[in-house]
Amino acid sequence: xxxxxxxxxxxxxxxxxxxxxxxxxxxxxxxxxxxxxxxxxxxxxxxxxxxxxxxxxxxxxxxxxxxxxxxxxxxxxxxxxxxxxxxxxxxxxxxxxxxxxxxxxxxxxxxxxxxxxxxxxxxxxxxxxxxxxxxxxxxxxxxxxxxxxxxxxxxxxxxxxxxxxxxxxxxxxxxxxxxxxxxxxxxxxxxxxxxxxxxxxxxxxxxxxxxxxxxxxxxxxxxxxxxxxxxxxxxxxxxxxxxxxxxxxxxxxxxxxxxxxxxxxxxxxxxxxxxxxxxxxxxxxxxxxxxxxxxxxxxxxxxxxxxxxxxxxxxxxxxxxxxxxxxxxxxxxxxxxxxxxxx
Amino acid sequence: xxxxxxxxxxxxxxxxxxxxxxxxxxxxxxxxxxxxxxxxxxxxxxxxxxxxxxxxxxxxxxxxxxxxxxxxxxxxxxxxxxxxxxxxxxxxxxxxxxxxxxxxxxxxxxxxxxxxxxxxxxxxxxxxxxxxxxxxxxxxxxxxxxxxxxxxxxxxxxxxxxxxxxxxxxxxxxxxxxxxxxxxxxxxxxxxxxxxxxxxxxxxxxxxxxxxxxxxxxxxxxxxxxxxxxxxxxxxxxxxxxxxxxxxxxxxxxxxxxxxxxxxxxxxxxxxxxxxxxxxxxxxxxxxxxxxxxxxxxxxxxxxxxxxxxxxxxxxxxxxxxxxxxxxxxxxxxxxxxxxxxxxxxxxxxxxxxxxxxxxxxxxxxxxxxxxxxxxxxxxxxxxxxxxxxxxxxxxxxxxxxxxxxxxxx
Lengths: 343, 410
Prior knowledge:
The complex is a heterodimer. Chain A is mostly beta strands. Chain A contains 4 helices and 32 strands. A 9-stranded mixed beta sheet of chain A has the order 7-19-32-28-29-27-30-20-31. In chain A, strands 6, 10, 11, 13, 15 and 17 form a 6-stranded mixed beta sheet that branches. A 5-stranded mixed beta sheet of chain A has the order 1-2-5-4-3, with helices on one face. In chain A, a hairpin with a 3-residue loop joins strand 28 and strand 29. Chain B is mainly beta. Helices cover 3% and strands 53% of the residues of chain B. The longest helix of chain B has 7 residues, at 320-326. Chain B is elongated, with a radius of gyration of 25 Å. The interface between A and B is large, with 61 and 67 residues.
């Protein structure tokens, strides 16, 4: 027999086939070698059975793969067990994003990592292979889409799958559970920072300022405020609409909508109760960006999601710039990418 | 993963006893069957069926489009920001520009809403809680839109059908009609928990034994009998108020133990220079007016929805004429009833004088009401599936979840 013995190793000395015990050269090869060796035998086969009835039957997808020399009279005669192929899996994570349909649920955003898959045997892509993936954090924290975590390679051995979670921060390591696949580079996904998939409208807002309005008509003995103080009516309405404002004397007025009354505050309070600070405070839609979260707005830098209001819906960031209406108007209409940094 | 389903097809019948209302039996409704939606993918607009299959790509360039909105008749769409922040553009469904409207606004147009088939509301951003509203009339044809002279400030401002009145939501808690308050949300401290009662003399300070604890400073009584109080929260921030009898100073404080909560400090003068101070904690958040305002076709009534932090919602209908006639600062309430749908409310409309419709996130509430006068709270209603706010659209490159920018139903 012209069998390349260089890589083989003995597996078994006897095989039970069709009720008979057959002896045969049962050695392990790569699958291609096993098939080639079988096919070498078939044309010149000189055994006791007519060779026209012999054929090679291969099972490349079995674990391990193998090839049988099959005889139509007696059944299987010889088999070659191939070594588990050296299939290397490379998993490459893309940038973690927050998809447009994320929403904030339970105070958390949904983050998505797209994983690029490449399965190769040597330099060739392995096609049509089902790869079973698992995450180090388990299914409670991380969810694959498709949900089974099984992805099938395309003709070039590539595939893609997405991993989602609402459990951040943290790191997930993705590997294959298939025994015939070696994960060359397990994918480590660090869940934060995560970039929003949508651009945001970026506007700015100022605190209501009494000096922006004419001093008359004015009101005294305003509910909650010092009786003798006089306030511009238009300014008071502004404070009612916006929640806070700076009076001419520099005091910060706040309107309590439930009490329909004003009070004086030590600072301009945001919807979260924090003091509004230019360069820090932004108003956002808390169903898009979690309350008090830290974000990076590409065009203005790091900010906190400290404020909100009914006029800020969806992908809209309103930057607090203090009592500078002229600066705010000058900034105009802007758009920016936004990255969520931390809760 | 929360992907909103394209549409639901069930009809919900609501338990009548839970809300004191009588649900009406209906046949199953098919949400979206004969409707088309406009969605935005990147900067481009698409027309899609309710099942998520694309019908046509309306625009095919990279031009920015913001606040896009499909006219309810389905023939034209509007968007902002074509050339400048205050531009509003009308296009037909082949993407051809029909008209450009410049509103001469000072800030970005952050929202466009078709109040009806001929009135487009443009929202100019001001602050997180207030906008300036412009109204564009296309009753003379979409090729000759007219920016109406009335401009209003507040939230969700809506002109009456004759254009003579404008109603707005102010601060999420008040409805104004022509700059005059006609409704306020109720006091959140009704039924609140009493934490502590203190007796204090003028110019004294105490620290409450509540959790969290507050430093209270009673600074005396004014000539008009107002009690001056300052409350300092554990983080060192303070609030100060001259409190009339019956009034209270409300302070919001958030910490890791108690979360965010509102606390009320209500003083009562018991003898000259001495007060008895009640410290209360609100058990519910302050209710807010949610969603939009809607005028009835005759321009006599205004509908809106209030939402409590608990998620309970109420449908309110104010009779603005009765309110004005009474000059009481409040509109007369024609209807106040529980609204048993999921929120937040997306839209609100009088379908007719005798029918109102409220759309939540996934549910639509419909109810017949009297054409005028008080509505009882025992009228039958139906709850059906709402047209979704998101659609899973099967683009050639794969399925994408997209936000709906308007529905048009035949």
